[in-house]
Amino acid sequence: MNQEINKGRILKKNKVVNYVQQGVGNPVILTHGLAASLHDWDDLLPELADAGYAGYALDLYGHGESCRPTDHHEYTFDTVFNHFSAWIDSLTPANPLVLIGHSLGGGLSLQYALCYPERVRALVLVNPFYDIHQLPPILQMAFRRKLINTTLIEHIPYPLFRFFVDLTSVNFHIGQREKHTLPEHIRYQTALDYTRAASGIYNIPLSLPNLVSDLSRIHQPTLLLWGGRDQSLIPESFPKIKEKLPNIVTAHKFPICGHVPHQCHPDQLNPHVLEFLKDL
What we know:
- The chain is of the alpha/beta class.
- It has helices spanning 44-50, 77-91, 104-115, 137-142, 151-154, 158-168, 184-196, 237-244, 261-264, 266-279, and strands spanning 5-12, 15-22, 26-31, 53-58, 97-102, 120-126, 222-227, 248-254.
- Helix 1 links the parallel strand 3 and strand 4.
- The chain contains 10 helices and 8 strands.
- The chain is 34% helix and 19% strand.
- It has a single domain (5-279), classed as Rossmann fold.
- Helix 6 (158-168) packs across helix 7.
């Protein structure tokens, strides 16, 4: 039986953190990617609670219902990481954490494990963003310089975001019955998250630290999951992290998934996560 979802808002130095919590047990932190929200984990969070874990999912800095400063200079990887780590401190977890991170959330989880190794029990990385060179060349060019005039982004209406989300989720691959790789309710939430996010967040990738040289220092058991049709990050970059992390317990590719396998096929991804946690 799914346990009650508790909603929380923390105000620390005028920086609001919006989050939800479900379940009782060892703490599991779920962190979404760029321009997403805590709703990324609507399918996994109740399953974690049913399995005996306390799951926590937050809206990152500039996202969802957390604080969204208007000054684009506020948006750096360090600012987002400090907001993230201060929120974890406020939870005062009694036991080491399991960190589950998607894309930018994967990079934040890796950075947290590097800064506070004694606080991290294990890692689950879903299409992790750990190096700016993972971006396709056209996106590297787009993120090369800081965005100053974000007026256009701020005025894009929901229907236009929804059009692009629907367009990019169309299944063009022969032999697949689904018209879209993402369910309708996920496409709705994805477009809504784009409209709620501060436009300054698109400056965050520019300041992403190159974590490659430090990955060998992360010795926690790690589960690596990724979609083979990712168009946001180069899919070949995910097997490469396998060579750098010393304690990859399991690595699994979802061939027909793109950038968000935890949303397009949670029925396939969630069992991998629960089995990994069970075997810790």
